[in-house]
Design the sequence.
């Protein structure tokens, strides 16, 4: 439990420091992006797009993953019931009969199938969102790129700063990536 809280704190601080370092850079660089498709002229649009993208992604993943904590909890209960029955069966011959153990095992198995199904569509949504969010700055900068206002080097700087700012705003995703590594 402490390790999880520590990971949350470290990731939050890392996100805050990243935001503090790259937000002013993106603010300056986004002065060159003055025209946005379908909207028109917006000053410092990339900051607003980064914030909006992060908020939409966070809400989307929260809605899609709302069932996962409950499924994990139910899985812990089912596994604990199976383990308890097996431990009690070690000392008492009337416990841990094949029929009861099989029933408990099938319950654990059904929980795992449900968890895997929900993680499948959650991960599909998560990775689709992350891929789409990497395209968004290009779409926003189309008039600027087509107009020849910025060079390739400046565009790369803008994209790196945008990705850092947007990434720091969805710090929970950073925790998950850190824990998986």
Sequence:
């Amino acid at each position: 439990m402490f390790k999880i809280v520590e990971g949350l704190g470290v990731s939050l601080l890392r996100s805050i420091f990243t935001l503090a370092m790259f937000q002013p850079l993106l603010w300056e660089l986004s002065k060159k992006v003055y025209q946005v498709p379908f909207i028109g002229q917006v000053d410092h649009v990339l900051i607003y797009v980064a914030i909006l993208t992060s908020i939409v992604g966070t809400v989307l993943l929260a809605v899609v993953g709302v069932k996962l904590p409950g499924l994990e909890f139910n899985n812990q209960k089912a596994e604990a019931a199976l383990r308890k029955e097996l431990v009690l069966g070690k000392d008492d011959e009337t416990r841990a009969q094949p029929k009861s153990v099989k029933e408990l095992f099938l319950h654990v198995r059904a929980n795992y199938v449900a968890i895997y199904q929900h993680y499948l569509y959650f991960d599909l949504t998560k990775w689709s969102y992350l891929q789409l969010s990497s395209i968004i700055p290009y779409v926003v900068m189309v008039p600027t790129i087509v107009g020849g206002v910025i060079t390739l080097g400046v565009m790369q700087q803008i994209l790196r700063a945008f990705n850092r700012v947007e990434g720091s705003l969805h710090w929970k995703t950073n925790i998950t990536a850190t824990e998986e590594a």
About this structure: Strands lie at 35-36, 40-41. Helices lie at 2-29, 45-64, 68-91, 98-140, 142-146, 152-169, 171-180.
